[in-house]
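Task: complex structure prediction.
Instruction: return structure tokens for all chains below.
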Amino acid sequence: MSERFPYLKDQDVVEVQRGPEPGGLGGAYRAFGETLRGLKTTMARLVEGPLTIQYPEEKTPVYPRFRGRHKLHRFEDSGLEKCVGCSLCAAACPADCIRVVAAENIPGERVSAGERYAAVYEINMSRCIFCGYCEIACPFDAITMGHDYEMADYDRENLIFTKEMLLAESLERTPLRSEGE
Amino acid sequence: MILPLADTQLVEATWIMIVKSLVIFGVIFAILPLMTVLERKLIGRFQHRYGPNRVGPFGILQPLADVGKLLSKEAFTPANAIPTLFVLGPLLPVLSGVLALAIIPWGDVQGGVGFYGIDVPIGVLYFFAVGSLAFYGVLLGGWASGSKYSLLGAMRGAAQLISYEVSMALALLGAVMMAGSLSLVDIVRAQDEIWFVAPQIVGFLIFMLAGFAETNRAPFDLPEADAELIQGYQTEYGGMRFGSFLLVEYMEILVVSGVAAAIFLGGWMGPGPSFLDPIWMLAKMLALVLFFIWVRATLPRLRYDQLMSLGWKVLLPLATLNVLVTAVLVVVL
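Output:
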């Protein structure tokens, strides 16, 4: 054996497993038995009930770290924007879909907590690949990935999300996956 | 001289016959669309899905939407096709299905009215004669389409027909001998004491097996194998012509279920007053229909040669043996 199959030298030769010969009374009995087993299997699936999620009415629950539509944040106490317009997110973005135009804060009508703020903050959702690098790059946790995944639209223009849209409380239409689910 | 349509010593007025046939048509054609929904929903459940549930409550109006769609399609005839035969293709099976419905017994004679379309004294033979007509539709449709797939499907249909029809007839012969009559009504009456499914269990199983082949359903749906033959003889049909092939499939399921229920499951027999008889018959038929659907959801399609060897080497000897044993027992007992 080892001369014919040198590559099997160190291995024990494994017996080929063969099923019973087809045909005959035994074959008929086995075919009948297997058919009944098949019928039982499908009936068990019927009893278990459907697993389908009826999408528009029911939504797939997402994990807490699911990367959906972005959110911009404000400080809860002062209501100032966290974003200081540093453009690090735009630099980190592999899809180049973030546009930030910064402006100086005027004392008296401060927009953000820092020296500068984002006068324009746009994310082109038709380009975004939802990698989450912007969230990682942000030094102030001003931008995070939310849970919404329903962003389809009829117009490409509507897919460019402005600062106001990103700052607004998201609708939170997406159910969160519960513990152990 | 008036030749009697049926030799049953029961003379009915013409208007009663007309009303009867209208009622049977009404009931059957109300059930057929529901059967399509039931099948799709059940197949869905068997596969962890819901099936159609969008059109109407519980998707009950789905067949209406389907028929609406099919009716709006063009009745297209391919350039290679033979037009007259191509049109005849779907018509013949519809005719045969409707004809076969006539002999299904829904109840005994009550108040001078037989609860069946007609009581043919050669009932079982009639069923086979009319049922085989449906295969002309398959053959004509497949041949006249002028398409390779259709022709292959039709040829498979023909080969399938000859390999199970004999055993199917022999399977019924045992029950026929026990009842001493070919009329379905008489056979049901003969099951007063015991349903023939008990003494004729072999015949029943063979008949059901052959019934799957007769109705071209899984696991014997070789003529329309959607995976390799893209619906076989139906490939070139569109619109309501395709729809009528579909209608026929369900009608044949009902007919085969009806014949099986009448011959083996005691037909209209059941507890309760006699006006419940048609309900019992319908319940038994529907139980068999559910079995048809269950089997379709379970078994894969047989290979061509497997069907042949099953028909000739297993079913035929078994059915013959069953007939011989029954004949001996009927004479001895």
